[in-house]
Each structure stands twice: as C-alpha cells, then as structure tokens.
Amino acid sequence: MSKADSVRAIRWEADQLLLLDQRRLPQEELILRLGDYREVVAAIRNMAVRGAPAIGVTAAYAMALAAREAAPYPDWRERLRGGAEQIKAARPTAVNLAWAVDRQWTLAEQMGAGADVATTLLQAAHDLLEDDIAANRQMGAFGASLMPDGGVLTHCNTGSLATGGFGTALGVIRAAVAAGKALRVYADETRPWLQGARLTAWELQKDGIPFSLNVDGAAAALMQQGLIQAVIVGADRIAANGDAANKIGTYALAVLAHYHGIPFYVAAPLSTVDFAMAHGAGIVIEERPPEEVTHCAGLAVAPAGVQVRNPAFDVTPAALISAIITERGVARPSFAASLRELRGA
Ligand SMILES: CSC[C@@H](O)[C@@H](O)C(=O)COP(=O)(O)O
C-alpha cells in the first residue's frame, strides 16, 4: 500500500463496497466485501469503519445498496425508506451519517417512474467520496499556515481512515508538513478504542511524519513542559454556535489548552456543521458498551460487575475553540455568523 495520505479505506469494486477493517489495524490490512446494506449498518455500528466523514460516505454507499435491493419492486420507495431509517440509526452522534442518508433519500424521492434509482445513488456515493477528499485537501490548504513549527497535539484518528482520504485535522497536519513546517505530532492513544495508537500512529508512520504516541493523561504534562504549541482535532457534529462534539477526551484537551494559552483548532467539513442545532447541549452523545472500558484486547482489566460510563464523545464549548477550519475557509469567533457566512447563507 502507498503512503497513508492516499490510503482509500472505502472503495467500490465489482458491485460491492470494500472497507478496510479498522478494528484489525495495525496488525492486519483486512478488506471487508459488503453487498447488503444491513452488513454496512453492522460495519458502522461495530467500528469496522469509523470517523464522521467516513461514516457519511459509507452511509451513502449503503443507500446505493438499499436502492439496488428495492429497485425491482413497485413499492421501492417504502423499501428504501425502511433501509434509510436503519442506516441512520447505526450511530447517533456524527451528523455526516444522517446528512448523507438524507441527501441520498432526497435524490431518490425526486426520481420519476422507470428511473434507475440504484445507478443514480451509486454515482452520488462516488461523487460524495471524491468531494470529501477534495474538501479535505482544501482544509489542508486553509489550515496549514495556522500550524506552528513545533509540537502539535491531536486526539483520536482524523486521517485517511476517518474520511474518504487525506483527513481533516490530520490532513491539515499533512498539508503543513508538505508546506515545510517543522512540526512534531503528539498523538493521544485515545482510550478505549485506541484510534490514536492503532490508526493515527499507523498513518503517521507510513507518511514519515515525526511523531510520538502518549497516553491520554500525559497531555497536561506535555503542555506544562512547553512541548505543545497547538492542538488540532476533528469533529463529529458542530452546532450552529460552534460548540463541537468529538471523541471523548477532546473537551479536556480544550480546557488544558486554554489554561496553558495554546491555540485549539477544530478541522471539519461544512457537512459536519448541524445548522439546525443551536447549541452543543442538544447533541446526542453515543454511550457505548461497558466491555470497551472493562476489557482491553479481550482481557478483563476491571473487576467483574463494575458499573461503567462509556460516553464515546464530549462537547467542547465554542468559547474554548480558536478557529474552525473548513473546506471554504477558516471560521473565527463568533462562530455562528462566521460559519453561516462560509456556508453562504
Ligand atoms: C475526521 S474524523 C472526526 C471525528 O469523527 C473523530 O475525531 C472521532 O471522534 C471519531 O470517533 P469514532 O468513534 O472513531 O468514530
């Protein structure tokens, strides 16, 4: 496989959706071949594919598969609507999922009798994948100059694996390195799924970008030691006022960055902004199974029967965010007006 900035974790081949199984990385590059939208729903739910933009693109392909199944029947619209509801329910927090399903549904609804809904939705999914990569490259172009010569802390995985390709926050880091910035990445391991240790480290190593991996709890000490000059993360849903939901632990980093006077950046496409949601308090936070916390690689690390809280995301208040980097430019506080302007409303 080539450098990780061009890794394609989501592909369409021989009438099937191919997903690089992110649960198996970095040990194994296993490709899942899915021909039924229900299998795709399971892959989103069980984290074989994850990351907000990647989930959105995958959901668009799931809609194409559902359309292919429904198309021969006179009641294809009802069948497709049933599929759309299942796909939408796979995970609740990343707005890109519902956004992609709604886009595909609207397209299908507009089609007249005899139209080839399956082919149309498949082409729309291909377009969404290419648009996502283009958006990431644009974010990189807008965000590179914000990156310092120095330490950049990031959380979770926001790279090629979390998107159609290239990445959001990791895309900005890639673009900054390509532009000659002498930066070093500090990657949080990101408990409990270890997206930082397993996925971000895999991508950075493939690209030859200088980095080190740290446990999540080390972030404060790294900042105290003067090693971090900026924090950059992705987002799963950004409210209209700029409050941003992202992987659990992100809010803690924003508080720490504020205390240490370090800029805190969010990089996300405009499809991650939920303009219908006024504040972050309305964002539904996914609560995942307790075993993700009580077990590590199948081994129990906590006494049996303990009570667990396992929120997968938290919400960083807009007041702690220095800038939101999008494919149309950089939004600055106050974000409500700045984001609306970028959207073009
Ligand atoms: C470009 S990805 C942005 C976010 O989706 C990412 O930071 C994140 O929180 C992913 O969570 P995950 O639970 O791995 O899907």
UniProtKB/TrEMBL annotation:
Q: Coiled-coil regions in this chain?
A: none
The GO molecular function terms of this record are:
S-methyl-5-thioribose-1-phosphate isomerase activity
- Active-site residues, as the UniProt record annotates them: D236
Q: What is its EC number?
A: 5.3.1.23
- Reactions catalysed according to its record: 5-deoxy-alpha-D-ribose 1-phosphate = 5-deoxy-D-ribulose 1-phosphate; 5-(methylsulfanyl)-alpha-D-ribose 1-phosphate = 5-(methylsulfanyl)-D-ribulose 1-phosphate
UniProt entry keywords in alphabetical sequence:
Amino-acid biosynthesis, Isomerase, Methionine biosynthesis
Gene Ontology biological-process annotations: L-methionine salvage from methylthioadenosine
Cited InterPro entries: IF-2B-related (IPR000649), IF-M1Pi (IPR005251), IF_2B-like_C (IPR042529), Initiation_fac_2B_a/b/d (IPR011559), M1Pi_N (IPR027363), NagB/RpiA_transferase-like (IPR037171)
Site feature location: Transition state stabilizer: C156
Q: Which domain of life is it from?
A: Bacteria
Q: Which residues bind substrate?
A: R50, G51, A52, R91, Q195, N246, K247
**Pathway, per UniProt?**
Amino-acid biosynthesis; L-methionine biosynthesis via salvage pathway; L-methionine from S-methyl-5-thio-alpha-D-ribose 1-phosphate: step 1/6
Explain the purpose of this protein.
Catalyzes the interconversion of methylthioribose-1-phosphate (MTR-1-P) into methylthioribulose-1-phosphate (MTRu-1-P). Also catalyzes the interconversion of 5-deoxyribose 1-phosphate and 5-deoxyribulose 1-phosphate. Part of a bifunctional DHAP-shunt salvage pathway for SAM by-products.
Question: Which family would the database say this protein is a member of?
Answer: Belongs to the EIF-2B alpha/beta/delta subunits family. MtnA subfamily.
PANTHER family associated with the record? METHYLTHIORIBOSE-1-PHOSPHATE ISOMERASE (PTHR43475:SF1)
Q: What is this protein called?
A: Methylthioribose-1-phosphate isomerase
Identify the species of origin: Acidithiobacillus sulfuriphilus
